[in-house]
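Sequence in, structure out. First:
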Amino acid sequence: MVPGGTEVDVQVTEPVSSSNANVGDTFAVHASSDVVVNGWIIVAKGAAGVGEVISVQRAGSHGHAGTIGLQMDWIFAVDGEKIRLTNQQTTQQGEGKEGESSTVTIVSWIFLGLPGLFAHNFVKGRDVVVDSTHTFQEYVFDTVHIAATTQENSGFAH
């Protein structure tokens, strides 16, 4: 049994950019580390999943930076089941604690300095790019049952 609120860290597989992404686009994600519950691996490092672009604003003139909103939808468990993800960590009492980002808006800012007070009228803002260097802290949406077959390596030879 995998309780809702179990942490799952994910990364995008390919870069997602506000310059060419559209609302509704899906993208591949993968688990950045094993997810272990009670000594059993329930999501293996590298497990595939899917996220979705939920908002996008392209960079514009006057130094206006691009933004992109991403939502992580699900990831495969070791038994092939899809585990729904959320950015809300819930406790057994059902109380929510805001996660780092599932539905996250990522903003790129340009710092133009004093000359930028006037030059920004002629400068195009930067688009934001999310790549595999950014890890998203996600959580299992609700309690699921997974048929785990591999125990976490305890560091001892068997």
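Second:
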Amino acid sequence: MSVYNAYLSLSGSLGVEAVRDERLAHRTSYRIGGPAALSVTAHTYPALVHAIEVLDKEQVGWVVLGRGTNVLVSDKGYAGCVIRLGREFSRISLEEDGQVSAGGSVLLSKLVNECQSKGLSGLEPCVGIPGTVGGAISMDAGTRDEWISRCVSSVVTFRPGSGLVRYEANDIEWGYRYTTIPAGEIILEATFELSSRDPKEIAADMEQRIARRRRKQPMGKPTCGSVFRNPPGGSAGALVESCGLKGFSAGRAQVSETHANFVVNNGGATANDVLIVLQKMHEEVLERHGVDLLPEVKFLGFD
């Protein structure tokens, strides 16, 4: 593996920005994590194809990182390359028939707000959810009961070695924090089928949802969102709370006092601190309730 050779090849390439040893704590909502050996921003589709070809040739592992909102990065960092989608993938296109297309790197909050201003309804359950459109599609983001997939019309991905792939919504199996879009494909664009509604009504709906999130979720401290998926018919937060773990801490990481399925960074927490807390939560719930909680947070750079 030659990260240095990949860096040399990509740093002078059109439409590519390449940086070595970028600290990922600055690129994640947790504000935790060591450096990525290489970070690449691809601003165009040809630039993205070229970057993947170079990385594969140099045998450098890679991962796509949007806003890093549901990721825990190792304290050692990541030995491969972190790829971000740039300008060409940050566009929103609104059609007259209620269809809206958004690039994979578009902020979900920007898309939700723009649709509201145009009187286009359907994405209200996504209000207050951080991250990008690509990330939201990949994990079928939303609330416990309403997911972004309900208004997806189609998705375009890049399949390394093959090229562009277009999926109609019914080509994809959607589930709670799950889709069958292959993990090795990069989500470039999604198109949504939305309905017309009074912008004031949409805004009121969104305000109610935001207020509910503020009451039920920790605010003001770095988190990665929910750390465990809700088990079928149950609540991960309720299970953790029943074990008396609200407020449990290791180092500077702590189970939130507001919502027991959130682990907050109290300032200066390490990835190891978070892992200790997650392990405690998992073990206690398994022992007391026999429920094997599955992580919702993704792990990067761990052995």
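Remark: The chain has seven helices and 18 strands.
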